[in-house]
Amino acid sequence: QVHVVESGGGLVQPGGSLRLSCAASGFTFSGYTMSWYRQAPGKERELVASITKDADGTTYTDSVKGRFTISRDNAKNTMYLQMNSLKPEDTAVYHCNIGSYSPDRYDDWGQGTQVTVSS
């Protein structure tokens, strides 16, 4: 059974940094592309970044390019999202999931981790 646990969120001032983690279990982590998603208040969930199973390819939504970096450690079954130069519009609940599908394709999500960017 697929199980993911997101962590690392918090309250940070604009321009600050956070590093999110996604600990995965219940499947062969190293065999799958993984992605980070986020859902801001009153908005639909969106795909933020994806990383291929061997970490040889990454993609980002335009609004985070140059500020966020996705990575993974297959030996630890963990994926990361380093977020720098945070902006108030990055405030959202961040989730991870298998693959890089449109958010409406998924039935199950973890509890997510809240990121709040505010002065």
Describe the structure.
The protein is mostly beta strands and 119 residues long. The protein contains no helices and ten strands. The protein has strands at residues 3-7, 10-12, 18-25, 34-39, 46-51, 58-60, 68-73, 78-83, 92-98, 113-117. The strands form two sheets. It has a six-stranded mixed β-sheet, with no helix packed on it. It has a four-stranded antiparallel β-sheet with strand order 1-3-8-7, with no helix packed on it. The protein is globular and about 40 Å long. The N and C termini lie far apart (40 Å).
Based on Cα principal axes, name the global outline: globular
Mean pLDDT: 96
Main sheet overview: 6 strands, mixed
Uncertain residue ranges: none
The radius of gyration over CA amounts to 13 Å
Compact description:
By secondary structure, the protein is mainly beta.
